[in-house]
Amino acid sequence: MTTALRMSRWPALMLAGLLAAGCTSEQIYNSAQGWRRNECYELVDLAQRERCLREADRSYDAYRAAASSPSR
C-alpha cells in the first residue's frame, strides 16, 4: 500500500474512532481542523497556505452558523 493511500485513509479511520468513542460533533470538528491545519503547513504557496489556515482556524460556532444559513 502506498504512503498516499495510507494517509488518505487516516482521516476516515480517525473519524470512525472518534464516533465510536462517543465524542461530540464539536470534538470531532476540532480534531479534524487540527489535522487540516497540519495539512495547510504542507502547502508551498504562501497565499494558499494562508487561505487554508484561515479556514482551518474557523471556530465550531462559525462553522455551525455558516452551515445553518440558507444558500444564496
Report on this structure:
- The chain is an all-alpha fold.
- The chain has one domain.
- The protein is built from four helices and no strands.
- Helix 1 runs antiparallel to helix 2 (25-40).
- The protein is flat.
- It has helices spanning 3-20, 25-40, 46-56, 60-68.
- The chain starts with a helix and ends with a helix.
Q: What is this structure's SSE topology?
A:
Elements: H1 3-20, H2 25-40, H3 46-56, H4 60-68
Helix pairs in contact: 1-2, 2-3
Task: Give a brief rundown of this model.
The chain has 72 residues and is an all-alpha fold.
Strand content: under 5%
Q: Into how many domains do the coordinates divide?
A: 1
Shape estimate: flat
| Class of secondary structure makeup | mainly alpha
Helix content: over 70%
The first-to-last residue Cα distance is 43 Å
Tell me the radius of gyration: 14 Å
Overall residue-averaged pLDDT value: 80
Give the uncertain stretches in residue-range form: none
Order of helices and strands: HHHH
Quaternary structure annotation: single chain
Number of E-state strands: 0
* Secondary structure tally, helices: 4
Major sheet summary line: none
